[in-house]
Structures
1.
Amino acid sequence: MDFQPDNSKKRNGCWIVFVSLFAVTLLLCFISSTISSADVEAMVLIPAGSFVMGSDAGDVDELPVTTPDLDTFYINKYEITNQSYQLCVKDGVCKINHDSYKFYRAAYDSYADADFYKFPVVYVDWYMAKTYCEWRNARLPTEAEWEKAARGTDGRIYPWGNQFGPNYVKFSGEWWPQAVGSYEDGKSIYGVYDMAGNVQEWVSSLYMPYPYNSSDGRENVESVDQRVQRGGGGAWAIYRTSNRSHYYPTDKSPIVGFRCARDANP
C-alpha cells in the first residue's frame, strides 16, 4: 500500500493562520475607525520648513517680515464646529458656551441647534479653546503655525492667492459666520479651509511684537496677557493672512472660534 501524506494538518494550520490574520485585520480596522470617529475634525499635515511671516504692506505689528523655520505639524482642516464642541461638553470636560449667534441670526438660539452643527463654535474664550484641544490630545496652533498653514511658503496675501473675489469668501452684504468649508475656492495651498472669511481664531501665542520667537515667552500658557487671534471676515484687512487681532484670554465674541493643531512627532 502506497504511503499517502496526511495534508489535513497543513490545511488546518493554514486555516488557523488565515482566521488569525483576518481577526487581526478586523481589529486594526476597528482601531483605525475608532481613532477616526474620535477625532471628528480632520487634520492636515503642514510640512517642515521656512515661510514668509508678516507683511510690509499691512499694520505696523506685522513688521518686521521674517522667515521662521517650523517643524512639521498638523492643523485642523476646518474650524471646530458646534457639533464637535458638543461632544466635549457631553464628556464633562468643556464648558457650555451659553451665548449664541443671535447677534447675527435671531433663529440661532443654541450651539446645540442641529441646523448649526456645521457652523464654527463661538463665544469660547482662550481657556475654553485650549481645554477642547487638549481633550482631543491636541493644542492650539502657535501664531507662526497658523500663518504658515494659511499662506504657504510664497508669501501670498490671502489663503488662496493674491487676488480677491466673491468666490473665495463672503464679502458683500451682511456678514455673519458660515458653515465650515462653505467656500471651496477659498482654502489655503495646503487645503485648510476658512483661514479667511469666517470667524477669527484663537492661537496659543501672546500678543507681542515681531519677530516671532517661540522661546521669548510668547508661548507662556500661564500668562493672563492678551492672546492673538487670526483670520476672520467682514473687513478687507482681516482677510489678509498676515493680519493680527488680539484679545484678553477671558474675552468671548460671536465672531471668534478656533481650530487645533498637533505635533507631527510628539
Note: The first helix runs from residue 8 to 38.
2.
Amino acid sequence: MAQLKVHYMHEDEELPSDDNWYKPKPQDASALPAHLGQKLRAKFADVETKPVPDRLVELLEALAAKEKKPA
C-alpha cells in the first residue's frame, strides 16, 4: 500500500508561482471553506450565464404542476 507524504509549509517558505496551488496549514483549516468556495465560484461562473436546457425546463414545469395538485 502506498504511503501519502504530506508537507506542511513553514512560515519562511514561499508559495509556488502557480496561484491555483494551495496547501493549508493546520491552523488555516478554518479558511479552507472560503477558499474552496472562491475557487468553485471562479470555475463555474459561466454556468449561470448559459441557458437552461429545454428538457430540464420541461421536467421542472412537470414537477411544479404535480406539486400543485392536491393529494
Note: The radius of gyration is 22 Å.
3.
Amino acid sequence: MTYIVVQFDYSNRKGMYERLLKVFEESVRVNDPENDVVVKMVKPPQVRTKHCFSSNTHKLAIWVDEMKKLPEGHEICFIDCDMMVVKSPNDVFENDFDIAYTKRPKPAGHRLPVNGGVVFCRNTEKSRNFMMKWKEINDKMYNDRKFHERYRKKYAGMNQSAFGYLMEHPQEWDAKLIPVECNTYNVCNESWHRVGHDENIRIVHIKSQLRKMVLSGTCSKRGCEEAVRMWLELYNSINGEQITMKIDPVRPLNRRGKKRPIPVGVKKKKNVHKIDMEVKPSEGICEPDRCKDQRRVYVP
C-alpha cells in the first residue's frame, strides 16, 4: 500500500504543517514500515477565496494525478498530513471495494456524517473514474457558491461536500463504495479518549483541539493524555528532544474540551482562589457541584 499525502508550504504558519507531516512520516516508519509514503510538497494556491476551499480543490487534483502513476490494482491510502498512524491499516483491504471512506459514528452525535481526511482506494478503472467524477463535482462547487452551500451545510468543507453529493447521487458513478469506521481508521474528536486503550485503532486525526495540544505540549482535555503523549514521543524521536506532556493547570475543562464558564458577576482572573477542600454554597457564589468538581471558589 502507498500513502499519498499533500502538504502546502504555508510560510505564515510557523512550520505547523511541517511538524505534523514529519510526525506522520515517523509514525509510518515506526508503526507501518512495510508501506510507502509519497509526499507532494506544493505552494498554496494564490487565490482570494477561503484558503481551505482552494487548497482542498488543489489537493484532490494532485490525488487524481498521483493515482494515475501507480500500477493497476495498487492499494492506496489518500491521507491528510495531520495524521498519526498507530497501527497498519492494511486490513481494510480485506474488504471488497473500489473506494472506502471513513464514516463517523452516529452515537457520537456529531453533525458531519463523514471525514475526508482518509480515503482508501484500489487502483482500478472504476475507482479512477470515481476520483475524476469527485474532482469534477468539486470544481463545479468551487465555481458555484450556491451549489456548494447546499451540501456544505451537511458535509462541510469542499472535498467532503463534493463527496457527499456523489453519495446522494449513486447513478452518476459505478464504483463499489463502502464505509469504514472513523473509530478505527480516522479517529476524530469523539473518540480521542480511546487512543492507547483500543487495539483496533489504526489512524488518529490530529485536528482542531488535539492539534493545539500536541503542538503546545499541553493536554487540556480529559481523556486525550495518551494521544498527546504518543505524538510527543514520535516528535521527540525525530528531533532528539525531551518534551514532556504538561497538564493545563489554569482551569479544568468540560468533556468537550472547553473551559467551564465563570459565573455571572465574577471577574475572569481576579479574585479567583484555589482551595483543597469541598466548598459549601455559602462560601462562594458558584454552584456546589461546580465548586466540588473544579476544587475552587469564586469570591466576588
Note: The chain has a mean pLDDT of 83.
